[in-house]
Amino acid sequence: MTTHDPIPARLAALKTATTLELKAQWRDLFDSEPPPFNRRYLESRLAYRIQELAYGGLKPETIRRLERLGEELDGGDRKKSRMRADTMPIAGTRLIREWQGVEYIVTVTADGFEWRGRPYKSLSAIARAITGTRWNGWVFFGMKNRSARK
Question: What InterPro entries does its record include (predicted)?
Answer without folding.
Answer: DUF2924 (IPR021322)
